[in-house]
């Protein structure tokens, strides 16, 4: 499995200014100033055409500006005629430089670099137009040499023979790159197909916490487009309390193996609400195919709501049970008291805590025990909802206490007593 190389592409939803800035600070463009210096140095050794130093700088800077503007104008991942224009600009800029310094097709490797630059974002689809424009630029460059419009350090007819060989080498190399790109796209396509309908969110973050990959389930579950959060910190959508907890567990995350570290966190939905996730976080920074912290997020919002509703119901029952003005108990099928409220304890003149764990028969008048047992057995063996009975309890000080009791049986879904 291969993850998308998001470091090599920008968010397509970003504006022109953001795309232009991202392109200007791309490592490829950052190499331009040192290259200008190198060209000027070898110019002093007469290893390139005898052109002014300022022209070298103008050629390189112009190439940088034109190329950056073309990327910023349409963004990465262009298709159709825009892709052909994007490739054409890249290759023409390269041709102007290599033919301008006098080396011509000898530096056809520059066209390969140009193809790689476009294929980083457009994929294997850029290979064919890259080949076409490479051959066209070489043909035009050789024509310029023939009419004296372009300088050359290699004399005829060698310059023409070498240009043919260099063109063949560049085309072959681009074809090999196309094969690798197509294989990668096939792998990524299978991966995307697998995760597209997955119910869980899969994210990859770098060492700074920026999201470099977000699966399609992100938008389906959180209501925000994946592109909106790519290259933004995961902390922006995490609940402050959970963020503090996760920061405290950072060493545990970095030290986690493939089994990962588990936690329950809240992420903010586009509507402002919070959704609960069971997160499994594992460190894949050393994996060259991932190079990030991988998080698998399973939505447990409904489970959390059910748990909260159950807690609320339990609390309401506890409050009603404990504060009821009438005596209430819960007992098992053998008559053992598992729970008693204070009102029942007052009926018996005892503490409710002391009543728990004892059998109801121990508090029942001896003459009423058989009747109570018969009614209880009938309730358990039939589908009756309950019964009502008047009986006597024994008070702690020895006197009888007449009570009217209502007894019901708690059953499971199949009607069996619990």
Description:
- The chain is α+β, with helices and mostly antiparallel strands.
- It has helices at 16-24, 27-30, 32-44, 53-74, 80-100, 109-122, 127-146, 158-196, 217-222, 226-229, 240-248, 250-254, 301-323, 342-348, 352-355, 369-381, and strands spanning 201-205, 211-214, 261-268, 274-284, 292-299, 329-331, 337-340, 386-394, 400-408.
- The strands form 3 sheets. A 5-stranded antiparallel sheet has the order 2-1-5-4-3, with helices on both faces.
- A hairpin with a 5-residue loop joins strand 8 (386-394) and strand 9.
- Helix 6 (109-122) packs antiparallel against helix 7 (127-146), helix 6 runs parallel beside helix 8 and helix 7 packs antiparallel against helix 8 (158-196).
Mean pLDDT value: 83
Shape: rod-shaped
Query: Helix proportion of residues, in percent?
Result: 40-55%
Return the string of H and E elements. HHHHHHHHEEHHHHEEEHEEHHHEE
- In quaternary terms, these chains amount to single chain
Radius of gyration: 39 Å
Uncertain spans, ≥5 residues at pLDDT below 50?
1-13
| Strand count | 9
Beta content:
5-15%
Largest sheet: 5 strands, antiparallel
Main structural class:
alpha+beta
DSSP helical segment count:
16
Beginning-to-end CA distance, first to last residue: 51 Å
Give me the side-by-side strand order of the main sheet: 2-1-5-4-3
List keywords for this structure.
single chain, disordered N terminus, alpha+beta, rod-shaped, 418 residues
Short description:
This protein is α+β, with helices and mostly antiparallel strands.
Task: Reconstruct the topology from this structure.
Elements lengths: L15 H9 L2 H4 L1 H13 L8 H22 L5 H21 L8 H14 L4 H20 L11 H39 L4 E5 L5 E4 L2 H6 L3 H4 L10 H9 L1 H5 L6 E8 L5 E11 L7 E8 L1 H23 L5 E3 L5 E4 L1 H7 L3 H4 L13 H13 L4 E9 L5 E9 L10
Antiparallel strand pairs: 1-2, 1-5, 3-4, 4-5, 6-7, 8-9
């Amino acid at each position: 499995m291969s993850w998308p190389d998001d470091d090599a592409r920008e968010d397509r939803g970003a504006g022109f200014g953001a795309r232009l800035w991202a392109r200007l600070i791309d490592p490829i463009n950052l190499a331009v100033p040192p290259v200008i210096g190198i060209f000027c140095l070898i110019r002093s050794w007469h290893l390139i055409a005898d052109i002014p130093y300022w022209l070298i700088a103008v050629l390189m800077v112009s190439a940088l500006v034109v190329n950056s503007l073309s990327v910023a104008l349409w963004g990465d991942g262009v298709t159709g005629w825009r892709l052909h224009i994007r490739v054409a600009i890249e290759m023409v800029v390269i041709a102007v430089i290599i033919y301008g310094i006098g080396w011509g097709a000898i530096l056809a490797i520059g066209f390969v670099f140009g193809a790689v630059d476009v294929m980083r974002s457009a994929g294997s689809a850029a290979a064919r137009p890259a080949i076409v424009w490479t051959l066209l630029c070489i043909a035009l460059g050789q024509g310029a040499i023939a009419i004296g419009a372009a300088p050359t350090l290699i004399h005829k007819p060698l310059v023409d023979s070498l240009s043919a060989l260099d063109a063949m080498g560049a085309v072959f190399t681009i074809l090999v790159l196309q094969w690798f790109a197509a294989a990668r796209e096939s792998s990524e396509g299978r991966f995307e197909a697998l995760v597209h309908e997955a119910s869980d969110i899969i994210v990859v973050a770098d060492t700074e916490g920026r999201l470099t990959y977000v699966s399609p389930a992100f938008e389906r579950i959180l209501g925000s487009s994946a592109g909106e959060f790519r290259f933004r910190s995961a902390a922006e959508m995490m609940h402050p309390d959970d963020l503090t907890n996760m920061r405290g567990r950072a060493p545990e995350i970095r030290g986690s193996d493939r089994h990962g570290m588990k936690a329950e966190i809240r992420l903010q939905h586009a509507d402002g609400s919070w959704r609960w996730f069971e997160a499994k976080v594992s460190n894949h920074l050393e994996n060259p195919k991932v190079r990030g912290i991988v998080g698998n997020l399973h939505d447990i919002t409904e489970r959390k709501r059910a748990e909260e509703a159950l807690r609320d119901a339990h609390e309401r029952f506890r409050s009603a049970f404990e504060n009821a003005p009438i005596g209430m108990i819960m007992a098992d099928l053998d008559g053992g008291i598992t729970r008693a409220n204070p009102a029942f304890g007052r009926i018996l003149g005892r503490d409710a805590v002391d009543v728990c764990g004892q059998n109801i028969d121990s508090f029942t008048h001896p003459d009423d025990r058989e009747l109570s047992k018969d009614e209880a057995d009938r309730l358990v063996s039939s589908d009756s909802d309950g019964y009502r009975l008047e009986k006597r309890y024994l008070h702690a000080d020895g006197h009888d206490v007449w009570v009217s009791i209502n007894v019901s049986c708690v059953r499971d879904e199949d009607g069996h007593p619990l």
